[in-house]
Amino acid sequence: MPHLLSLIREDVATVLERDPAAKSHLEVYLCYSGLHAVWFYRMNHWLWNHNFLLLARWLSQVARWLTGIEIHPGAQVGRRLFIDHGMGVVIGETAIVGEDVTLYQGVTLGGTGKEQGKRHPTLLDNVVVGGGAKILGNITVGHNCRIGAGSVVLRSVPDNSTVVGVPGHIILREGKRVVITDPKQINDPLSAALSAVATEVNKLKERVRQLEGTGGSEPASESLQRIIEDRDDQI
Ligand SMILES: CC(C)(COP(=O)(O)OP(=O)(O)OC[C@H]1O[C@@H](n2cnc3c(N)ncnc32)[C@H](O)[C@@H]1OP(=O)(O)O)[C@@H](O)C(=O)NCCC(=O)NCCS
User: What residues flank ligand 1, with Cβ below 6 Å?
Assistant: First the structure.
């Protein structure tokens, strides 16, 4: 375990690296409530692990009053977490946050209210979560994922994906645009409906040709074919 002071220096260096608005070490020490919240959390997590449960919870509330950021002392948070702006961020008791994660203001790593035990999300390394995004339930957001501002993510997300919307769906995976998302991975209701309609239209076209007696099956139009293939290809 690195020395406390070196962890603090590392946190400050992280802010200077990730926030172009940060101008000096002194400014970061004084003005970044996200950092203050993380430092409070580290102390509270130690107290929590040494069974000072109520003291840890109370101090986490003090940190919330001072910073607007609520990190439950039982959560597991990796190194170099950067909470930018911060107000309204909530990290639940069983959440796990990997290393080099960035959270913007208003992010919730919360429960759905339906689960017991591990009921908050796990974020793997290098995840960036945009302002106001809600990630709910015992799901995993893979390495290097980006969650768009305002998204509501309810299903696990594979590595190297960008997710946007409500409910959150993948728009980019491994650098490639995803047109239709596999409903088993992370549902995109519009894409699922579109691909179902495309398949039905194709079947109807074939049926009409049979009834007209024109025989043989005409290939689907290019755009229909693309939608059907995209559905079969994705992820
Ligand atoms: C999700 C995000 C990372 C995507 O960035 P990107 O890879 O550059 O993607 P693009 O801007 O090219 O957008 C790709 C598509 O997703 C859509 N999109 C992007 N962000 C979105 C969001 N938050 N919600 C819904 N749709 C979004 C775009 O409209 C675009 O759709 P289109 O291709 O149909 O026009 C980024 O838009 C985002 O939300 N970042 C969070 C930033 C933030 O919270 N900052 C707070 C600073 S205080």
Answer: 85, 104, 130-131, 146, 148-150, 162, 164-165, 171-172
